[in-house]
Automatic annotation (TrEMBL):
Signal peptide: 1-29
Xref: PANTHER family: CTX-RELATED TYPE I TRANSMEMBRANE PROTEIN (PTHR12231), LACHESIN (PTHR12231:SF220)
Lineage: Eukaryota, Metazoa, Ecdysozoa, Arthropoda, Hexapoda
Keyword DNA-binding: no
Membrane-spanning ranges: 345-364
Keywords: Disulfide bond, Immunoglobulin domain, Membrane, Repeat, Signal, Transmembrane, Transmembrane helix
Gene Ontology CC entries for this record: neuron projection
Domain Ig-like: 33-134, 138-225, 230-321
Domain of life where this protein originates: Eukaryota
Name the UniProt record assigns to this protein: Lachesin
Length: 365
């Protein structure tokens, strides 16, 4: 080799060495571990099976790990070794694709979360890719939802219903027997049902239904009780009856809380005795039927009777007029042997019936 060529080689040598160094560095950089594939987000049912695939390149000299990264990270695998002692978990490695496969059987609600495939390169450097597992769960209505309401007429109230589950449940409101809601519709969707001005007609059972398409959903019955002043109706404001017979006077009271009920005549409160019998029958928390029986009516017992009902929200009253008739009114006069004179009436009716049959037979001959 000539001096010229030697001198030229000496001049190119540094550049050649620099080129070789750059190529080596680039080759080394290309061999830094990378995650080429991670399974996409998974949505599974309780009891199902899920598998997470993590494909890693240039990681032969490094440990690949699966970690459940919740509040407190849980290491599941290191390299090809399963760390967690749970028979539901298993790990396989496919050398052809450099893929680690983490499988979970019999999925439980607690398995939901984020799973991370990690390659630790140094104390300050790691490569990772994450996959989220969501577990379908049927709706469960929370304990902090409304259970019952007692409120005064005219006030504003709200019923709350919250439910957990996945997917997020939809909360729908209904009334018993599909009655119209205070929102003027048969159903209402939302966590809070508001009634701006409560009416006594709003009382009853409301249904909070949570549904997300998983299982049958969940339902809670919410009883709404409305406090209001008494309202009295009288089915028969005027009643006639003959002397010495009994008669029932009735009034129907609607009120909550249940009221105190009294009957009066000529501003004197009546009580159970030989002349009167008072009975109350509650058909529901808000309804009471009250009956005053006037026994063996005397002249002085004709006139106006007042049914009064009182609770802490107010009072009401209604009148029933009892007047005299010549013919006994049925009921309760007829067919009751223990009423005054009724035994005689029943016996007379039987006698007349028997006489009619005998006459018919006589004329038939």
């Amino acid at each position: 080799m000539s001096r010229f060529h030697l001198k030229m080689f000496d001049n190119l040598l540094p550049a050649l060495l620099l080129f070789i160094t750059l190529v080596a560095q680039q080759a080394q950089a290309q061999r830094t571990p990378t995650i080429s594939y991670i399974t996409q987000e998974q949505i599974k049912d309780i009891g199902g099976t899920v598998e997470f695939d993590c494909s890693v390149q240039y990681a032969k000299e490094y440990n690949v790990m699966f970690v459940k990264t919740d509040t407190d990270p849980v290491f599941l695998t290191i390299g090809s070794t399963l760390v967690i002692k749970d028979s539901r978990f298993s790990l396989r490695y496919d050398p052809n694709s450099s893929t680690y496969k983490l499988q979970i059987k019999d999925i439980q609600e607690t398995d939901a979360g984020t799973y991370s495939c990690q390659v630790v390169i140094s104390t300050v450097h790691k490569v990772s890719a994450n996959v989220k597992l969501s577990v379908r769960r049927p709706p469960v209505i929370a304990d902090n939802s409304t259970q019952s309401i007692v409120a005064s007429e005219g006030t504003e109230v709200q019923m709350e219903c919250y439910a957990s589950g996945y997917p997020t449940p939809t909360v729908t409101w209904r009334r018993e027997n599909n009655a119209i809601l205070p929102t003027d519709s048969a159903t209402y969707v939302g966590n809070i049902l508001r009634i701006k001005s409560l009416k006594k007609e709003d009382r009853g059972t409301y249904y909070c239904v949570a549904d997300n398409g998983v299982s049958k959903g969940d339902r809670r019955n919410i009883n709404v009780e409305v406090e209001f002043a008494p309202v009295i109706t009288v089915p028969r404001p005027r009643l006639g009856q003959a002397l010495q017979y009994d008669m029932d006077l009735e009034c129907h009271i609607e009120a909550y809380p249940p009221p105190a009920i009294v009957w009066t005549k000529d501003d004197i409160q009546l009580a159970n005795n030989q002349h009167y019998t008072i009975s109350h029958f509650a058909t529901a928390d808000e309804y009471t039927d009250s009956t005053l029986r006037v026994i063996t009516i005397e002249k002085r017992q004709y006139g106006d009777y007042v049914c009064k009902a009182t609770n802490r929200f107010g009072d009401a009253e209604a009148r029933v007029n009892l007047f005299e008739t010549i013919v006994p009114v049925c009921p309760p006069a007829c067919g009751q042997a223990y009423y005054g004179g009724a035994e005689h009436i029943a016996a007379s009716a039987s006698s007349f019936a028997l006489l009619g049959i005998l006459l018919a037979l006589l004329f038939a001959r």
